[in-house]
Design a protein that fits this description.
Elements: H1 3-14, H2 30-56, H3 63-92, H4 96-101, H5 106-132, H6 134-137, E1 142-144, E2 147-149, H7 151-183, H8 185-189, H9 194-215, H10 219-223, H11 226-232
Antiparallel strand pairs: 1-2
Helix pairs in contact: 1-7, 2-3, 2-7, 2-9, 3-5, 3-9, 5-7
Length: about 240
């Protein structure tokens, strides 16, 4: 398959011209239920990521919100990964309903592993920074090409990769996701498992809020770290 064909295939899906028929099955909804869970989770994830990017524009001034939203993002991103991963596994193991629904465009299948890896790396290093604190977070963790890489630098690097891969993913998926989650609400209501999907998403958000409450006290060390504020913004040592 040529690069031009890959791009045209992805563009066709991104424009909402490709309408995948997902079979609906009892209880959880089968591929149709999976598609709706993935779409709604993706839209929630998109909103949270936008908020997180806004807080990153003034990370010292909005550090508390950066930590809170970032922590809530973790279980939501894991749910999105699990939902998508389940579909991939079922497709490649030959499950009939998922084979009938078909795979995503090849370009997105190639992009997927990079997006998952950068997402896990971004959130993993973010949580590690909170757990380690400023001093350990800036201590070289690994040496590569003669350069010492600390957790903070890795976090920033993962963010760049995540921003590019997630941006491409959003461009390719936002129209189909909105259509699936919004314009087909009546049809979605007839897909079995609607209540279960709602509960799963709600519980994931609650887990994120609880996680944020538990990890937020570790943010104090960063608020009082002079080096961090010298590098990334205005001083806030009044806490």
């Amino acid at each position: 398959m040529s690069a031009r064909t890959l791009l045209l295939d992805a563009a066709h899906v991104a424009a909402g011209h490709a309408h995948r028929e997902d079979p609906s099955r009892p209880r959880a909804g089968g591929p149709a239920g999976n598609a709706r869970l993935t779409a709604w989770t993706g839209l929630v994830l998109l909103v949270l990521v936008v908020v997180e990017i806004v807080t990153a524009l003034d990370v010292t001034g909005m550090l508390t919100w950066h930590v809170v939203v970032g922590t809530i993002l973790v279980p939501v991103a894991l749910l999105k990964t699990a939902s998508t991963g389940w579909r991939i596994v079922r497709y490649y193991t030959g499950q009939r309903d998922y084979r009938q629904a078909g795979p995503p465009p090849m370009l997105l299948r190639v992009l997927g592993p990079l997006l998952v890896a950068s997402t896990l790396g971004l959130f993993g290093t973010g949580l590690a920074l909170m757990a380690l604190g400023p001093e350990a977070g800036r201590s070289p963790l690994v040496t590569f090409l003669g350069q010492g890489w600390d957790v903070l630098t890795l976090h920033q690097g993962f963010f760049i990769v995540f921003a590019v891969s997630a941006g491409l993913h959003v461009l390719a998926r936002i129209v189909p996701a909105v259509e699936l989650a919004g314009r087909r609400v009546a049809r979605a209501a007839r897909t079995p498992g609607r209540a279960a999907r709602g509960w799963v998403l709600a519980l994931v958000l609650v887990a994120g809020v609880i996680g944020a409450a538990l990890i937020l006290p570790t943010e104090t060390a960063w608020q009082h770290d002079h080096h961090f504020h010298d590098l990334y913004g205005r001083h806030r040592f009044d806490r």
